[in-house]
């Protein structure tokens, strides 16, 4: 007999506990959430629109915009979205599929990491149901836009 490791999808699942009642009561209307995780100069920012997918049943999709966030972070974001979708299906006892649109995003080519995007995506989902917890200030948005302008001058896949 061999023992195999069952790996956790990600390490912050418990944070969703605070929105479980709101997910159960959710009327399936479109959701909009912004998530920003910042620590000193490191940051990850993502803004999502999440809709119940009626047109393309039996599939959930995300419209990924590489101009906003590099593709290298997509797997991490999708892992968090998969967890959220599974949670919704269990709580609502429905087969539901979703269309996720990336409305905005920001990253630092030097300091952004998958872990930062995991947390930012969780914050964006939490923001869909309760925007009072994590406030993104005007100063935060101005900083993100400033960083976007600086890094837009460099070719993709190059470190300044």
Describe the structure.
The chain has a single domain, classed as 2-Layer Sandwich (Ribosomal Protein S5, domain 2). It is built from four helices and four strands; from the N terminus they run αβββαβαα. The protein has 160 residues and is of the alpha+beta class. A hairpin with a 2-residue loop joins strand 1 and strand 2. 35% of the residues lie in helices and 21% in strands. It has a four-stranded mixed sheet with strand order 1-2-4-3.
SSE arrangement:
Elements (H helix, E strand, L loop, with lengths): L19 H6 L5 E9 L2 E11 L8 E3 L10 H19 L5 E10 L6 H16 L8 H15 L8
Parallel strand pairs: 3-4
Antiparallel strand pairs: 1-2, 2-4
Helix pairs in contact: 2-3
Offer a few descriptive terms.
single chain; 160 residues; Ribosomal Protein S5, domain 2; 4 helices; 4 strands
Task: Output the CATH topology.
Answer: Ribosomal Protein S5, domain 2
Task: Indicate the mean pLDDT.
Answer: 84
The CA-CA distance between the termini, in Å, is 52 Å
Number of helices: 4
The percent range for strand residues is 15-25%
Structural class: alpha+beta
Strand order across the largest sheet:
1-2-4-3
Described by strand count, sense and barrel closure, the largest sheet is:
4 strands, mixed
Task: Give a brief outline of the structure.
This protein has one domain: 2-Layer Sandwich (Ribosomal Protein S5, domain 2), CATH 3.30.230. The protein contains four helices and four strands, in the order H-E-E-E-H-E-H-H.
């Amino acid at each position: 007999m061999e023992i195999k490791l069952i790996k956790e999808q990600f390490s912050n699942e418990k944070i969703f506990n605070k929105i479980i009642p709101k997910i159960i009561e959710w009327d399936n209307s479109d959701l909009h959430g912004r998530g920003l995780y910042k620590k000193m100069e490191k940051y990850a920012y993502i803004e999502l629109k999440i809709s119940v997918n009626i047109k393309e049943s039996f599939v959930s999709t995300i419209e990924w915009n590489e101009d906003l966030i590099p593709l290298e972070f997509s797997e991490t974001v999708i892992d968090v979205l998969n967890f959220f979708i599974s949670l919704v299906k269990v709580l609502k006892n429905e087969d539901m599929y979703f269309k996720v649109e990336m409305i905005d995003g920001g990253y630092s080519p030097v300091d952004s990491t998958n872990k930062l995007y995991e947390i930012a995506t969780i914050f964006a989902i939490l923001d869909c149901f309760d925007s009072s917890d994590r406030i993104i200030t005007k100063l935060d948005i101005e900083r993100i836009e400033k960083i976007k302008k600086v890094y837009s001058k460099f070719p993709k896949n190059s470190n300044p």
